[in-house]
Write a structure and sequence with these properties.
0% of the residues lie in helices and 42% in strands. It is mainly beta and 71 residues long. The strands form three sheets. The chain has a three-stranded antiparallel beta sheet, with no helix packed on it. It has a two-stranded antiparallel ribbon with strand order 1-2. It is globular.
């Protein structure tokens, strides 16, 4: 079971969605292998600048709906 988190790269500011599971190390072509450090802490690469950064996510980062009509 994985959760999608909306995170922002601290290096370039690019916003992206990462599919994170605290049970499995998922690898994604966009973000590389996701290294797990804890239930809400991991590192992955930014799809934009390819710099690996550590992220600590909270429930507020969780993406629950994808129903944005206008952007
Ligand atoms: Zn970046």
């Amino acid at each position: 079971m994985s959760v999608k988190y909306h995170i922002i790269c601290p290096n370039c500011g690019y916003e992206f969605i990462v599919d994170y599971s605290e049970w499995n190390s998922l690898s994604d072509p966009e973000v590389g292998i996701i290294f797990r450090y804890g239930s809400n802490t991991f590192s992955c690469k930014c799809p934009q600048c390819h710099k690996r950064s550590g992220y600590h996510v909270t429930d507020s980062n969780e993406v629950t709906t994808e129903t944005k009509e206008d952007e």
